[in-house]
Amino acid sequence: MLFREIHILEKKLNERKLLGNLRAMSIDEDRIDFLSNDYLGLARSKDLKISIDASFLNLQESNKINGSTGSRLLSGNHKYAEYVEQKLAAIFKAEAALIFNSGYNANLSILSCVPQKSDTIICDELIHASLIDGARLSFAKRLSFRHNDLEDLEKKLIHAEGEKFVVVESIYSMDGDMCPLESLIEVCEKYHAHIILDEAHSTGLWGNNGNGILCEKNLHDKIFARIYTFGKGMGVHGACICGSQLLKDYLINFARPFIYTTAMPLHSYVAIASAFDYLQSNTHERQALFANIDLFKKLFAKYNSSYLSLLQPSNSAIQVITTSGNERAKRVAAQLRNKKFEVRAILSPTVKAGEERLRICLHAYNTKKEIDDLTCTLSELLKHNDTILL
Ligand SMILES: Cc1ncc(COP(=O)(O)O)c(C=O)c1O
Predict the structure, then answer these.
(1) 3-state class of 301 per DSSP?
(2) d(CA 103, ligand 1 centre) in Å
(3) How far is the CA of 142 from the centre of ligand 1 (A)?
């Protein structure tokens, strides 16, 4: 039995090697960061660290300062966790917020337990793996609609049975483009469908105090549930689901990734609260990020006029250059890394075959020179790789 299992593992890894998409971990080298999700630079902010340390010191009278000791339903709850949840509910203009150890856990939680067997989950085809995995764990019927195509969504909604749940992201993680929220809400209202919105890549970046695109558009009352993550723009860790008190009570009772896991340590709650306090009094990182996004698009157009169609439309920190084929995407990414730019290729099957790409993440701390050098180098490499292919 064990021997057979090992054989299968090897076989599957060899298949990946042959397809050129074997995954491996690496340690960051000293390259220019166009890769991480630390869009605002808060993960490396000394000022934020000082305020996290100070708040944490203030809570030292508490026990459980190193570990939480259990699930929040057993010994792992803390009054400070409840305080942070109230704070988050106020920031995200929701009746209630429930904190999860990660965005992955939050997505697994809500999708696996809210839709029931007789219900239908309808997902944008480009949603994140964590939402797909959550939907897979549910007993509901699962459908998908073409990316951002509301006509296709409507076709699926017409025939959908039971309670209908439409799952989208405000900024799509692999494409960096936005969900057309206003029109999506209109379509969903027509069919009484509930929207589950993942704001992982807009949390901290859009909205007052970083409260995301939905709140910025003042549409927060129109959506059943929203997921905000803190490991990207907020520079810390964890996530929360915002919605009604009823939803929160339900998740506490039925969300297995919430119930059957050790709660985050106190320090993580302090970090989340401090990061939001920091954003409230600091806007320069967000201004710098959005200026860098504009600059990248301008310079890419300047140096790459013959390759402009490869740059996908995106106003977010995630910029995508499609380079069909795993080999080509990997080659350009490796050449960029040789030139000290940390950029990764996104390969199939993570994206559809033919849509392999370079995914460039912009940050508040990227300098003008770094962005100029990157876009200029890209023009040489794209030309060079075209010649190789001929
Ligand atoms: C859209 C989206 N949702 C959820 C997650 C998971 O969040 P976390 O990293 O906090 O587990 C990610 C992570 O990449 C993501 O891109």
Answers:
(1) helix
(2) 5
(3) 21
Per-residue pLDDT for the chain (390 aa), expressed as one digit of tens each? 555 567 899 999 999 898 888 888 888 778 999 999 999 999 999 999 999 999 999 887 777 889 999 999 999 999 999 999 999 999 999 999 999 999 999 999 999 999 999 999 999 999 999 999 999 999 999 999 999 999 999 999 999 999 999 999 999 999 999 999 999 999 999 999 999 999 999 999 999 999 999 999 999 999 999 999 999 999 999 999 999 999 999 999 999 999 999 999 999 999 999 999 999 999 999 999 999 999 999 999 999 888 889 999 999 999 999 987 888 899 999 999 999 999 999 988 888 888 899 999 999 999 999 999 999 999 999 887 765 543
Domain 59-281 fold is: Aspartate Aminotransferase; domain 2 (3.40.640)
Amino acid at 264: M
Give the span between the Cα atoms of 267 and 64, in whole angstroms: 10
User: Is the distance from the beta carbon of residue 103 to the nearest atom of ligand 1 less than 6 Å?
Assistant: yes
Q: Whose CA is nearest to atom 10 of ligand 1?
A: 103
Hey, is 186 helix, strand or coil? helix
Cβ proximity of 255 and 105 under 8 Å:
no
Question: Where do the structural domains in the chain lie, given as residue ranges?
Answer: 24-42+283-389, 59-281
- State the fold for domain 24-42+283-389: Aspartate Aminotransferase, domain 1 (3.90.1150)
In terms of Cβ atoms closer than 10 Å to its own Cβ (0-12, 13-18, 19+), residue 277 is: middle
Alpha-carbon distance of 113 to 35, in angstroms, equals 33
pTM of the model: 0.95
